[in-house]
Amino acid sequence: MLRVPFDQLHAALLRAMHQLGLTEARATLCARLFAETTRDGIYTHGLNRFPRFVETIRNGSIDVYAEPTKSAGIGAIERWDGHSGIGNLNAHASMQRAITLAQQHGTGAVALANTNHWMRGGTYGWQAAEQGLFALCWTNTLANLPPWGATTPALGNNPLVIAVPHPGGHVVLDMAMSQFSYGTLAAYSKRGEPLPVEGGFDTAGNLTRDPAAIESSQRALPVGYWKGSGLSLVLDMLAAMLSGGLATHQIPSDPLRESGLSQVFLAISPTAIADPDELTRIAEGILDSLHQATPADPSNPIRYPGEQTLQLREENMRLGVPVDPEIWQQLTLSTTQ
C-alpha cells in the first residue's frame, strides 16, 4: 500500500466530487466521509469503493442532485425519502436529524426510504457518539446472503451499527450479518490470503476460508449461523416497514445498480435520564473488566469495538493514509486532466 497525507487524499476526492457535479458543501462532506473511512482503516468502503460509487452515478442509480425530504412524522419518529440521492450524504443527514430529535425528546428516530449504499455504516455511529449520544442504525441491502439451510441468496448482509459515547474512546460496533462483508472477501482475494476463520461455503457445500470460493458460490456464512440469518431478516423487515421503502427481495440484484435501500437511524440522549459522571463510571467499569480478560494470544490484546479504529486513525494521520496504488493513480489522473 502507498501512504498519502490525509489532506491530499481529501483534496483529490473533492476534485472528483466536483467533476461528478456535486455542489461545494455536498462535495466537501462527501469527500470527507470517503477520506475519513479510508483513514480509519475501512479501506473496502473508502477509496477502494470509490470507482464503484462513480459507476453507480454514471449508470443513473444515484442522483447527485437529490436531497432527502421528510414524508411523514409524529413526535420523535419521522419518515424521510432519499430520492435516490448519494447514500452517505443521505445517511449523514438522517442521523443528524435523529440526533436533533433526540436532543428535543430524549430519543429520535428517522426511517429513510429510497436511498443508496451508505458506505461505512460506522460513520453514523461515530457521528452520534462524538455529539454525546447513543446510536443504533442499520440498512438493508440487495440479496447476497443465503438464509440458514439455503444455497441461494434471499437475505441481505444488512449491516448494524451500535455506538456508545465514552470520553476515553467511543465504543462503536459496525457489523454485517455475514461473517465477512463482500468487500472484505474481495480484499482478501486480491491479496491472495485465506480468511482467518471460515467465512462461507464453496460450490460443493464445504465450509471454507477461501474468499474467492465464497465469492463464486455466493454462499457467505451468516454470523452465528441461524441466529445471524434471523437477525438479517428482522432488520430488513423493520427498515422496510418503518420507512415504507423496499425490502431486500425488491432491491436490484446487480451490485452496480443496487438502489432503493431502506435504513433506520435511532439516537438516544443519555443525559436526559442519567448524570454524565455516572455514565462514564459504568462504561469504564465495563471496559476495564473487558481488558482484564486473559488473551488467548498474548501478542493480541483484548479490544472493544472501535478501539483499533482510534489507533489506526492516529497512525494514519501521522504516517499517511494507506491507499491502493492503482486506485490512487486512477483518481489522481482523472482529477488532473
UniProtKB/TrEMBL annotation:
Gene Ontology molecular function, alphabetical: 3-dehydro-L-gulonate 2-dehydrogenase activity
A Pfam family assignment: Ldh_2
SUPFAM superfamilies referenced in this protein's UniProt entry, alphabetically: L-sulfolactate dehydrogenase-like (SSF89733)
EC numbers on record: 1.1.1.130
Tree of life domain: Bacteria
Claim: Oxidoreductase is one of the keywords in the record: yes
EC class (word): oxidoreductase
Protein keywords: Oxidoreductase
Name of the protein described by the UniProt record: 3-dehydro-L-gulonate 2-dehydrogenase
Organism: Tunturiibacter lichenicola
